[in-house]
Amino acid sequence: MFGRIIFGLIIAAIGAVVTIKAEWIYRNVGPIPSAEKYLGTEGGSRLAYKLIGILVTVVGFLVVTNLVNNVLTAIVRLFIPSIK
Fold first, then answer.
1. Cα(82)–Cα(66) distance, rounded to whole angstroms?
2. Residues 8-49 pLDDT 10s
3. Are 65 and 12 in contact (CB under 8 A)?
4. Are residues 84 and 42 in contact, defined by beta-carbon separation less than 8 angstroms?
5. Which has the closest alpha carbon to 51: 59, 62, 63?
């Protein structure tokens, strides 16, 4: 249990850093062509990096609270209702 909490907090911290440092990541990694195409002309990659960071942070908190299995099961049930 303690290891899961620490692991989840580390994942959440990595997601927060990705969200906060999106500009730095953009300068060092470069643009994401599909993000530039679909999310905007100049800010699409920055927005994509921030969305990725937010998603990673949410997954980290799901790990901390031990809700990952429940959330994934609920998402799968949306597409395949026969799964219990």
1. 24
2. 999 999 999 999 999 999 999 998 889 888 887 778 899 999
3. no
4. no
5. 59
43's tokens: 């800010």
Question: Taking the mean position of all CA atoms in its chain, how far away is CA 14?
Answer: 10
User: If DSSP states are collapsed to H, E and C, what string results for the chain?
Assistant: CHHHHHHHHHHHHHHHHHHHCHHHHHHHHCCCHHHHHHCCCCCHHHHHHHHHHHHHHHHHHHHHCCCHHHHHHHHHHHHCCCCC
CA distance 24 to 73: 35
Q: Which residue has tokens 């679909």?
A: 38
Q: What is the pLDDT of residues 44-84, one digit of tens each?
A: 899 999 999 999 999 999 999 999 999 999 999 999 988 77
Q: What is the pTM of this model?
A: 0.84
